[in-house]
Design goal:
7 helices, 6-stranded antiparallel β-sheet, mainly beta, about 10% helix
């Protein structure tokens, strides 16, 4: 088996309890041949307490697959009709992302994200073999988001303590760009495909038509889907929780405290504390302020939490419905020579670059919930993080883990991404990324027992140059280490952290890894075909006596190596799971 041992970050470690049974996956090799690079390779067994248990990777669905009367991954508009591509064909999304498992009464469902524009979620009913635990799809249908204005680029997600699916809207559209535009070409064409949800043709629409249909403040919110046993799904957006490039929200066991990660360049980390358990439509939002305590490796930091104010979703939704423009919320000025801002303006550097902004009178609520990253920076929070991705919780040790796909750009010292900002994060660039470990403690003032205190690297990727004659030529991160970590999940009962990758040149073939927290060893358990991304690793320790580790393969041949696609069917995304495992607590 391939094993790499890493030193744990001593500044953030908590005592690790003894586990009754050891737990170890069989490993898979790094792909070297063309056949291996086209294949799905998965661990075929786990050893638990010395006993080997056979598992496998089971495919639940692939994009375009007919399941019952539905077509899994077919994008639909606000009326429920199929969305058309420019060539007139129905648009089947290959961008599958988070896929949950939801036991509801005596039934089992899965909700899958499709990270497209317009976005989609599909509700699929599953049958579970009572003897083997094998899951089989029975029917599928899209979740209707028309009551909340449609769905935008749903990325990762999680399952709430009360058993609902909580998701995301990533890469929120920049409302300033939409407001500044003098012609359609001034707006990022990344936004254009969303117009199809409203019945417009991106190639034929005018700027006025686009603006009339597309409200940028409708997108970038946490989403929640509640499923009933009869298969009805109700979608909601939680506007009180802020608007960001949301990778995912993760609700803590108190059912009140939620962490929200923000994917992109010059982003932040956020915490929402709800007024009532199980209700995410009213509460106080906080943003992290980082104080660097070490510049070794990916750096270590203490965390303080900046209060961004209280809100209710109803109040924020009323503002969205009034369709304010960016300049209704802010007054903006050009930075002076040397990068300074004029009197009354606050200098910030976020995803949108260096800006000088002033909040207009009475628009604090709109700024905090519709321009959350900008507002957080104005209030003194840190917005220098790069490619902040998955987050997960270890309840057995009361710690969290956070993936940073790259340690770069605003995280460096005195880069262009720090102009006009505080430059609180000053660490060496590591384009292979890192996974951080974060400790937590109760905070009486905030009113939560789950407040993050500090963060330090647990596992880091290692930039590596392979010679042209190497079997790993072209890979730029150590082949037996992580590259651009993305989604994470902690396997309760086994003290194992699962790390998925979203990498391009770091590893030609993305992998999922199992990191044994007890021994500090890393095992490759999954590799995916050319050009794909691993998404959605998520652990379910006990569903009717069986454990499942979800795993999704997004856009095969889509991110790189598109020239190697021989059969269009091979480009279809996969949703599946590892297992079944023996149930654990």
């Amino acid at each position: 088996m391939t094993r790499i041992t890493f030193l744990l970050a001593t500044t953030a470690l908590l005592a690790t309890p003894a586990f009754a049974d050891s737990f170890e996956f069989s490993s898979v090799s790094a792909p070297t041949t063309d056949a291996q690079k086209r294949a799905v390779q998965a661990s075929d067994s786990v050893t638990i307490g010395g006993e080997t248990v056979k598992i496998g990777y089971h495919i639940l669905a692939r994009s375009g697959q007919k399941i019952g009367d539905g077509t899994w991954g077919l994008l639909v508009d606000k009326t429920g009709k199929p969305v058309r591509s420019e060539d007139g064909s129905e648009h089947i999304s290959v961008d599958t992302d988070f896929s949950s498992l939801l036991p509801v009464g005596k039934k089992l469902f899965s909700i899958s994200h499709f990270e497209s524009r317009p976005g989609a979620m599909y509700l699929t009913e599953l049958s579970q073999d009572p003897e083997t635990g094998v899951l089989t799809p029975v029917s599928t249908k899209p979740v209707d988001f028309s009551d909340v204005g449609g769905l935008w680029v749903p990325c990762a997600g999680s399952v709430t303590p009360w058993g609902t699916h909580i998701g995301s809207e990533e890469y929120e559209p920049d409302a300033r760009e939409v407001a500044d535009a003098e012609e359609l070409a001034d707006i990022d064409d990344y936004f254009y495909p969303m117009a199809r949800y409203f019945g417009l043709s991106p190639s034929e629409m005018t700027l006025d038509q686009f603006r009339a249909a597309f409200n940028p403040y409708s997108f970038g919110h946490p989403t929640e889907v509640t499923v009933t046993e009869d298969g009805n799904a109700t979608a909601a957006k939680h506007y009180a929780m802020g608007r960001l490039s949301i990778e995912l929200p993760y609700v803590m066991p108190d059912s009140r405290t939620t962490y929200i990660t923000d994917d992109g360049t010059n982003v932040g980390l956020y915490m929402f504390v709800a007024d009532e358990a199980g209700n995410l439509d009213a509460g106080t939002l906080y943003a992290a302020k980082l104080t660097q305590t070490s510049d070794e490796g990916a750096g270590a930091f203490d965390l303080d939490w900046v209060d961004l104010g209280h809100a209710t979703s109803d109040a924020v939704k009323k503002i969205i419905d009034d369709k304010p423009g960016f300049f209704d919320i802010f007054e903006a000025a050009d930075p002076a020579e040397g990068g300074t801002c004029g009197e009354g303006f606050t200098s910030i550097n976020t995803t949108s670059g260096h800006e000088c902004l002033k909040i207009r009178d009475g628009m604090e609520l709109a700024a905090s919930r519709l321009e959350t990253r900008r507002y957080a920076a104005m209030m003194g929070a840190t917005t220098e993080l790069r490619k902040e991705e998955g987050i997960t919780f270890d309840p057995e040790n009361n710690r969290m883990f956070l993936a940073m796909s790259e340690v770069a750009k605003g995280m460096g010292r005195e880069t262009k991404y720090d102009i006009g900002g505080p430059d609180s994060v000053q660490v060496a660039e590591n384009k292979c990324g890192a996974v951080y470990q974060l400790s937590m403690a109760p905070d009486v003032a905030i009113g939560s027992d789950f407040v993050l205190q500090d963060m330090a690297p647990l596992v880091e990727g290692t930039p590596t140059e392979y010679g042209a004659d190497s079997e790993f030529a072209g890979n730029t991160c150590e082949i037996d280490g992580i590259a651009n970590p993305d989604n994470l999940t902690y396997m309760t009962g086994h003290d194992t952290l699962i790390i998925g990758e979203d990498t391009g040149s770091g590893h030609q073939n993305d992998a999922i890894w199992a990191y044994n927290m007890t021994s500090g060893t890393l095992t490759r358990i999954f590799t995916t075909p050319y050009g794909s991304e691993t998404t959605s690793p998520y652990w379910y320790p006990d569903i009717n006596g069986f454990g499942y580790l979800m795993g999704v393969i997004q856009h095969p041949y889509g991110e790189s190596d598109a020239d190697k696609l021989a059969d269009p069917a091979d480009a279809m995304a996969y949703a599946g799971y590892f297992g079944p495992f023996p149930a654990s607590k």
